[in-house]
């Protein structure tokens, strides 16, 4: 009777399917890797509100403390949510918009309008976001009412992480058995291969979020090494699902590059003009069909005393094998030599896009030549020697 | 599949090696070439996992054994032998600059080693010229890079270029009975003015001209060594040590002519140096030079006498006199030599400059005056608000200098043409001065062409690191 009541209570308190199953399931030793996707998902957050515990029921102290903590958290979150909702509606009224259709984008926009901030750090600027995003999620209960942990690897401190390592090992053993069987039967090795192109391993942070466990670089490296080793197995295609769980699709960036208009001069030579800036420098470049003449503020390429700056200007043309096919004329203002050369390079590349094919533009983009270099000098701080440098410390 | 991860881990790397090459064919590109015994590579066997552990150990042992023999095989596949293409720079065997014509423009010619030392004054090893002692010796500063290059390459090759050919052509064609013609080479820094002067200097030396050569006037701004008040001309300032050095340089360049009695280079009047010392009229010019070298106190005055006598002797004896002055505009701009009252010595007070000013004047005949103007290290107003690159003679000589030098024939020393650049790079490659693996490719040469801006000096400094 008691046990039944306990079961009920547990089911009521922790109504996450994975957790309950984990509680009921026994640890299967080496009988093949268990699917723990639900478990890791279950470890996500406290979704349900645990009700007050019946004082008659014998509950482990740790469990009781957890339940109290969870209850307090849920209460807090509930209050925050309601406050956020009121705030949202109030903000909508302030902005003279309909509170029913006032979305998060509208909130962001309104906050930016009402509380404009020029703080450099984005995270330091004022925000108004749902409490789920603001307050960190808490981990699900790891043990039952009797105080026994659900997970056999609980005492490693990182059960979900070590579970993956165990699974890799288990899969490897299973695949080895399979391979041996095939060899015994005289079958040829499989032609199938696991095609993982277009995907990459989850990053350390992504994996840490998935597992709700802290991850050190060493742990992540170990994970990657083990996974890569599994990938070497000829029958790895059989565990594709398992492998793909930890891979993320590479997002293909499609950026339309606006080439400047191609014009014709009086002699019928086509040319383009573009503007770019870098640091405090501004450059206006005209690129014309020609023989490689360079004119920078009325001087030739030796306008730049350093070879590195001259190389900057040469690079886009050299990359496309189009040196000495264009005449460059540039007007540059302000800044130093490296700023000037960087600005000219960017403007020159923009000009060049009008002359070349799409594939070549893609080459330029991949080389980072069409990316604006937005770095600027960091300001000097009061009391410091420079932006970061401190004055020499002296013992009094 | 990123393979570079494996390069860090020794154990996994070994496993990967075994898995990929010994037992089964590799799945992807192997990061490092891996040598394996031939038998193993020919027959990839299929084994059970349990057997493989033993097999892998065996393979490992085989690897260890076969390491010396297999390393050669690995090296052949891995290392690409660097092969620079053999190129021959275009040269001419005509060693007399008088024979050079526009046909051999852009070619190299070799200055005979016997001429090099007395003519250019490279008397000291290069290590000394960099140091304090050698660097302050004016004899080591005629085209010093060529000296350094010559020590490495064991030859002194100069490129035959249009400005020098033009000047030599003018000199050959000019009527020397008329007042001496002045040529002013101008061009931007590194374009080859001094190299052209060196070529012309060799032209004078090879054709029996008496040479009055001032390597680089701006040198005295810094290396003035010793300063003394002039005894002969009160108010003027002498540089005794520097003057002795210059006289030595003059003697080494012209010793054959000065020591030849048939030339009849004799003084016109008696020069009284002090109560006891005097040079009587009719004594050889060599005596003046030697006296100046021996008695540093009179070296400056000896130079003055020399200039005066040469102006007279050139038309009388028929001995042609070639004057070569590098950075002539420094003769008209203030020096950096300090005086007691914390001012600097103006050019017109320095007696050495006065003597050279007098020889670049065109009030004498049977000679030629070849000069150059430059911006570098010239003091005065030259650098102020000039937009960064004006190298024209009228601008650099300023008012007094231009008045002094007018009329003159300006000769523009331009940067390299395409064929000159190609030949220069060929020469650098031939002599292994340039050893970069891309030096022979069109792409590499294009890069050098673009980055150097076709400027000889910039090209040399770029190539010196490749």
UniProtKB/TrEMBL annotation, chain A:
It comes from the Eukaryota. Keywords: Ribonucleoprotein, Ribosomal protein. The keyword tRNA-binding does not apply. Pfam families: Ribosomal_S9. One of its GO terms (molecular function) is RNA binding. SUPFAM superfamilies: Ribosomal protein S5 domain 2-like. GO terms for cellular component: mitochondrial small ribosomal subunit. One of its GO terms (biological process) is translation. Belongs to the universal ribosomal protein uS9 family. This is 28S ribosomal protein S9, mitochondrial. It comes from Hypsibius exemplaris (Freshwater tardigrade).
UniProtKB/TrEMBL annotation, chain B:
GO terms for cellular component: mitochondrial small ribosomal subunit. Residues 68-79 have a biased composition (Low complexity). It is found in: Mitochondrion. Belongs to the mitochondrion-specific ribosomal protein mS29 family. It comes from the Eukaryota. Its main location: mitochondrion. This is Small ribosomal subunit protein mS29. Signal peptide: none annotated. Keywords: Mitochondrion, Ribonucleoprotein, Ribosomal protein, Transit peptide. It holds the Pfam family DAP3. Residues 59-98 are annotated as: Disordered. GO terms for biological process: apoptotic process. It comes from Hypsibius exemplaris (Freshwater tardigrade).
């Amino acid at each position: 009777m008691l046990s039944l009541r306990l079961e009920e209570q547990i089911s009521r308190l922790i109504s996450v399917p994975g957790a309950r199953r984990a509680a009921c399931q026994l640890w299967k030793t080496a009988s093949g890797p268990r699917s723990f996707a639900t478990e890791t998902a279950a470890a996500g957050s406290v979704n349900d509100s645990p009700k007050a515990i019946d004082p008659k029921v014998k509950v482990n102290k740790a469990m009781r403390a957890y339940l109290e903590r969870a209850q307090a958290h849920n209460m807090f979150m509930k209050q925050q949510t309601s406050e956020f909702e009121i705030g949202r509606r109030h903000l909508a009224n302030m902005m003279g918009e309909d509170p029913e259709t006032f979305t998060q984008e509208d909130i962001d926009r309104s906050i930016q309008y009402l509380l404009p901030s020029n703080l450099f750090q984005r995270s330091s600027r004022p925000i108004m976001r749902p409490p789920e995003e603001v307050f960190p999620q808490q981990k699900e209960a790891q043990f039952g009412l009797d105080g026994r942990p659900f997970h056999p690897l609980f005492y490693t401190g990182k059960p979900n992480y070590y579970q993956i390592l165990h699974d890799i090992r288990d899969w490897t053993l299973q695949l080895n058995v399979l391979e041996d069987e095939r060899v015994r039967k005289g079958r040829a090795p499989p032609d199938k291969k696991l095609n993982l192109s277009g995907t990459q391993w989850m990053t350390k942070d992504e994996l840490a979020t998935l597992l709700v466990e802290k991850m050190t670089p060493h742990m992540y490296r170990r994970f990657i090494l083990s996974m890569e080793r599994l990938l070497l197995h000829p029958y790895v295609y059989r565990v594709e699902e398992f492998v793909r769980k930890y891979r993320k699709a590479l997002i293909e960036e499609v950026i339309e590059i606006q080439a400047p208009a191609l014009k014709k001069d009086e002699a019928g030579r086509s040319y383009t003009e573009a503007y770019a800036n870098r640091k405090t420098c501004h450059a206006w470049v005209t690129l014309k069909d020609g023989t490689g003449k360079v004119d920078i503020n009325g001087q030739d390429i030796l306008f730049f005393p350093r070879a590195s700056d001259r190389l900057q200007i040469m690079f886009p043309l050299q990359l496309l094998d189009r040196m000495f096919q264009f005449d460059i004329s540039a007007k540059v203002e302000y800044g130093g030599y490296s700023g000037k050369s960087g600005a000219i390079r960017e403007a020159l590349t923009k000009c060049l896009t009008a002359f070349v094919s799409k594939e070549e533009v893609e080459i330029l983009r991949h080389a980072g030549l069409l990316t604006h270099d937005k770095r600027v000098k960091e300001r000097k701080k009061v009391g410091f020697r420079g932006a970061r440098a401190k004055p020499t410390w002296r013992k009094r | 599949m990123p393979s570079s991860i494996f390069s860090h881990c020794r154990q996994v790397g070994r496993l990967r090696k075994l898995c990929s090459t010994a037992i089964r064919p590799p799945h992807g590109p192997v990061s490092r070439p891996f040598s394996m015994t031939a038998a193993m590579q020919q027959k990839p066997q299929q084994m059970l996992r349990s057997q493989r552990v033993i097999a892998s150990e065996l393979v490992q042992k085989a690897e260890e054994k076969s390491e010396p023999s297999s390393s050669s095989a690995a090296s052949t596949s891995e290392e690409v032998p660097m092969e620079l293409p053999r190129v021959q720079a275009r040269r001419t065997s005509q060693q007399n600059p008088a024979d050079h014509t526009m046909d051999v423009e852009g070619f190299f010619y070799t200055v005979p080693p016997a001429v090099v030392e007395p003519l250019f004054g490279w008397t000291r090893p290069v290590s000394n010229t960099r140091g304090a002692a050698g660097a302050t010796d004016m004899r080591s500063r005629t085209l010093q890079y060529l000296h350094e290059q010559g020590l490495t390459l064991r030859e002194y090759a100069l490129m035959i270029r249009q400005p020098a050919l033009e000047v030599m052509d003018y000199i050959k064609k000019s009527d020397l009975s008329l007042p001496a013609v002045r040529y002013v080479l101008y061009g931007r820094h590194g374009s080859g003015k001094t190299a052209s002067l060196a070529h012309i200097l060799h032209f004078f030396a090879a054709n029996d001209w008496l040479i009055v050569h001032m390597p680089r006037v701006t040198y005295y701004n810094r290396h003035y060594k010793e300063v003394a008040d002039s005894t002969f001309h009160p108010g003027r300032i002498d540089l005794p040590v520097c003057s002795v050095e210059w006289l030595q340089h003059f003697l080494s360049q012209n010793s054959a002519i000065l020591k030849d009695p048939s030339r009849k280079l004799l003084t016109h009047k008696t020069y009284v140096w002090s109560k006891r010392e005097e040079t009587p009229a009719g004594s050889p010019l060599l005596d003046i030079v030697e006296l100046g070298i021996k008695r540093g106190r009179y070296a400056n005055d000896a130079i003055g006498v020399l200039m005066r006598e040469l102006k007279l002797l050139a038309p009388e004896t028929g001995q042609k006199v070639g004057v070569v002055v590098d950075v002539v505009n420094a003769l008209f701009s203030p020096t950096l030599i300090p005086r007691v009252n914390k001012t600097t010595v103006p050019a017109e007070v320095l007696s050495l400059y006065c003597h050279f000013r007098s020889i670049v004047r065109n009030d004498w005949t049977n000679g030629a005056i070849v000069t150059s103007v430059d911006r570098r290290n010239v003091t005065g107003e030259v650098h102020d608000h000039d937009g960064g690159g004006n190298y024209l003679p009228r601008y650099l000589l300023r008012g007094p200098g231009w008045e002094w030098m007018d009329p003159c024939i300006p000769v523009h020393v331009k940067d390299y043409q395409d064929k000159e650049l190609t030949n220069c790079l060929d020469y650098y490659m031939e002599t292994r001065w340039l050893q970069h693996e891309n030096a022979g490719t069109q792409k590499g040469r294009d890069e050098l062409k673009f980055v150097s801006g076709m400027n000889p000096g910039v090209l040399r400094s770029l190539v010196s690191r490749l």
